[in-house]
Amino acid sequence: MAIDGTGCSICFNDFPEDVQLCVLSFLTPGEIATFSCTSKRFVSLCRNDGKLWFAMCDRRWGSKTQIKKWGKGQISYKLLYKTLNDWENLIGFWRRSGAGTTGVSSPPLILFEWGSLYLTAWRVSPSRNGTYDVIKTPFLWMSLSAEGQVVNFLDPDGRNEIPADFACSESFDYVENDLIPVGVSFMGKGHFVMEEDLSFAYSNREQRKNGFRRSSSSTNLLAEEGVIGEDVIESEFGSPGSLPDRLMSEIYQHFANRTSPVGERASRRQRRKDKERQARRRLESQHFVKIVNCSPTPSRPLQGLWKGIYDEMSLGFYLVAYDDIGGIACRKVWNSTESFSSCGPLFWTSKARVLESRFSAEEEHLYDSRIHLRPLTEADCIHGCSLLAENEVVSGILRINSSYDLVSPHMAGATTNPQRVEGRIWQYGDGTFGFGFLQDNFIIDLKLVSENGCLLDAVEFCSN
After folding, report:
1. For residues 201 and 16, which has the higher predicted lDDT (pLDDT)?
2. How far is CA 45 from CA 38, 58, 203, in A?
């Protein structure tokens, strides 16, 4: 209740419906459920899928994707809201956890972005042409069918762009496009597992007309609220080939072998089926962990995902993170000359104490006597030499240790040359920084990989 200029009270009921919808669109689904209990009139308003739930979807994602066209406009906005709300956490950078898989290009770094009718994950890799260019190739496509099923396709080679309406198009054949149907399982907000969905079957047009079979991460978005069908039960236990399904199968087989006289023969048949299923599998399970802090902040100016030229003049990615006690650590995420990610520690310091100018003569000499590693220009390529950049305006200096001190801390004091584990970070006035070690004669100057959610120096590439 509010008071207008004349002193009269104004209730929420007195506002026009479009104003009410605008106000309610800022609430969460739980708050909407609570609000609907305050009045019978509000019950019907809160259940109005085409008005309230569309307004909620449009306010949050209307500027990022085409809300009305998801699932050919045939799916519930209420359940579309729930799906996009879960997927919104995917937006941003993720790094692979563990070693890469064989047979499929398994990227160490991916970037999720909104598409017109889908969510896209891109492989993000450093270029090999001696520049700051970053290569984007398709990796994963996520959308909803007209039947309300989650449809996920993995592009194993980053081959080509697929139609925006791939989840609803009857003419689209994922086999011809060499795509792999996958299931995406969330393990909290910062970890997801992707595995091949062997149960996904709609290889011809007739199967398309009958609808999709459920993938391991999908739910029936057209189901009535409160109704539990067979497909929902199947979703809870996972699709055939998923981790929960295999676990239940093993438990069942264990007890069957103990009680059945033909249990051993059944066990052999099951093992043979498992081997055949594994032989058809093109993709092993892959785990990805979210990179939460991808950009620097005023209090943490060095954190984020950076790119820089290595001493062999190839581009690499660096991840700099702060800990809870003020320390800073840097890891090399990807080197363009390596097949797989190299996530070893590069430098580390336990105290982020910055030396402000005016600097000592020794510190000025350490900086002035080193060259800056930057991308090669055409003229430099002709002469075969690296570019000697002019000195940047240094605003602060930070002492660091190399990975040798981090990996073998008990040997840090045993080295005969302490300079081999000591280095510097030079902060520049434009917010970037460079680093180097005392044993070297160069400084690796870093630039941000992305800014304000946009990938910098991006070059989209498709092998077709």
Report:
1. 16
2. 12, 17, 42
Q: Locate 362 and state its tokens.
A: 């020794």
Question: What is the pLDDT confidence band of residue 247, given thresholds at 50, 70 and 90?
Answer: low
| Residue 249: pLDDT over 50 | yes
Phi and psi torsions of 209, nearest 5°: -65, -30
DSSP code, position 386: -
Question: Cα–Cα distances in Å, from 161 out to 142, 170, 284, 297?
Answer: 13, 17, 24, 35
How far apart CA 297 and CA 462 sit, in angstroms, is 34
Q: Scanning the structure block, which residue is given the tokens 């080939």?
A: 241
Assign residue 57 a region (left: φ > 0; alpha: ψ between -120 and 50; beta: otherwise).
alpha
Q: Are strands 442-448 and 304-309 parallel, antiparallel or unpaired?
A: antiparallel
Hey, what are 293's tokens? Answer: 């802090």
Residue 349, C-beta contacts closer than 8 angstroms, at least 6 positions apart: 327, 328, 398, 399, 400, 401
Query: pTM of this prediction?
Result: 0.74
What pLDDT is stored for residue 102 in this prediction?
53
For residue 423, is pLDDT > 60? Answer: yes
DSSP 131: S
